[in-house]
């Protein structure tokens, strides 16, 4: 999950991830949660360091989208088009994640199948898919992780708390989504 930024004084993604941590995942899964600062340079250091430290099978990033009304599974990350200033008032001069990297990297996770399976569970949360994570820190983080892992990453956008879901609903949705991704 991410820390506060802009109008998101409380970032729903971090709250949802903390709910997921309370719920846990299957016994055979080691869950590690981190609050990622909304800072390009921190992301460029932190994401590769976490991959190196944990050698995970899968990393699932969770971010908030002020426009989202549904829980959204992002299919891919984008390398270029980063113009928004982060919490440090910084933006990469190149406006890209990885100089010379591919324009777009798809997750190896079949988001269409995950969406269908989670939707069939009858949770009180609507799940959808997207091909555009927004060209800000969410997309930047996702691309960085996809590049680091050769596609073994996922990104889930959640709406702001109460618009329409509670923290508990988002935590349960993340739990179901991640367990389907692992399957």
From TrEMBL:
UniProt keyword Protease, yes or no: yes
Keyword Flavoprotein: no
Biological process (GO), any one: proteolysis
InterPro entries according to UniProt: Peptidase_C15, Peptidase_C15-like, Peptidase_C15-like_sf, PGPEP1_Cys_AS, PGPEP1_Glu_AS
Pfam families linked: Peptidase_C15 (PF01470)
Transmembrane segments: none
Protein known as: Pyroglutamyl-peptidase I
Organism: Opisthocomus hoazin (Hoatzin)
């Amino acid at each position: 999950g991410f820390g506060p930024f802009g109008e998101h004084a409380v970032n729903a993604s971090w709250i949802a991830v903390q709910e997921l941590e309370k719920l846990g995942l299957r016994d055979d899964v080691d869950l590690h949660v981190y609050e990622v600062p909304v800072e390009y340079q921190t992301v460029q250091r932190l994401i590769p360091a976490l991959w190196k430290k944990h050698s995970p099978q899968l990393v699932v990033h969770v971010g908030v989208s002020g426009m989202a009304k549904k829980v959204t599974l992002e299919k891919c990350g984008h390398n270029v088009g980063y113009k928004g200033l982060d919490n440090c008032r910084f933006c990469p001069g190149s406006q890209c994640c990885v100089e010379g990297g591919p324009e777009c990297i798809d997750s190896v996770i079949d988001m269409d199948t995950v969406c269908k399976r989670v939707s069939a569970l009858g949770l009180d949360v609507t799940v959808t898919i997207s091909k555009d994570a927004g060209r800000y820190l969410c997309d930047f983080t996702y691309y960085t992780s996809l590049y680091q892992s050769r596609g073994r990453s996922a990104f889930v956008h959640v709406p702001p708390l109460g618009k329409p879901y509670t923290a508990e609903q988002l935590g349960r949705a993340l739990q179901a989504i991640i367990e389907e991704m692992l399957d």
